From TrEMBL:
<feature type="transmembrane region" description="Helical">
    <location>
        <begin position="127"/>
        <end position="148"/>
    </location>
</feature>
<keyword id="KW-1133">Transmembrane helix</keyword>
<keyword id="KW-0812">Transmembrane</keyword>
<feature type="transmembrane region" description="Helical">
    <location>
        <begin position="154"/>
        <end position="175"/>
    </location>
</feature>
<protein>
    <recommendedName>
        <fullName>Bll5862 protein</fullName>
    </recommendedName>
</protein>
<keyword id="KW-0472">Membrane</keyword>
């Protein structure tokens, strides 16, 4: 959800993080980032935002979901998601609204002279753990494949190869997009925006 006021001075975005909760609402104003989450509200000046982390976070109901974690210098953190719950079985993407809001947030932070830490993907330790798990899984799958080949279980070979291809297709995009890196205000990571 996105709306511009008559003067183009504010940009808003809202999403429902859960089916029964209230909408999380955000607005970019001349003063800063205004947010309303549940019963809490706040206004963070653009130069008081200490960090922004962009990531790709698919879930079972929505395989194309992005997330922005925005941190404040005094310790608060808010998450902005690119999807919104519609019904018990439907999570709707809000790609254009999310993209426009995040790009505008970065532009306003840059204009305010922000010195925020801009990172993309997972944290370095989490990413290393994911890679280690995938390496162990690859070794196990290779062992199963070799055993199936040696025993002549060609149906098993086909199953393992099919499963490996599906797994690589599903997990490969997540791993590729969430590689830890830094970025700057004028070059946002395209793979982490819808």
């Amino acid at each position: 959800m996105q709306a511009l006021d008559g003067q183009g001075a504010s940009l808003s975005y809202a999403y429902k993080a859960s089916l029964i909760g209230s909408a999380h609402r955000f607005e970019l104003t001349d003063e800063g980032l205004s947010w309303h989450i549940g019963g809490r509200t706040g206004l963070w000046r653009y130069d008081e935002i200490s960090a922004v982390r962009l990531s790709f976070r698919p879930v079972s109901m929505q395989q194309h979901r992005f997330r922005a974690d925005v941190s404040h210098t005094k310790g608060g953190r808010i998450a902005i998601l690119s999807t919104s719950w519609q019904t018990a079985a439907l999570m709707a993407p809000q790609d254009n609204g999310f993209r426009d809001f995040i790009v505008a947030l970065h532009a306003r932070m840059a204009k305010a002279g922000s010195r925020a830490e801009l990172t993309a993907g997972l944290g370095a330790r989490t990413y290393a753990a994911v890679l280690a798990f995938l390496a162990l899984l690859a070794v196990a799958m290779a062992g199963l494949l070799m055993r199936a080949l040696m025993t002549g279980e060609f149906a098993g070979v086909l199953f393992i190869l099919g499963f490996a291809a599906l797994f690589a297709w599903q997990v490969g995009g997540f791993v590729r997009r969430n590689q830890p890196r830094r970025y700057n205000f004028d070059r946002l990571p395209a793979g982490l925006l819808p």
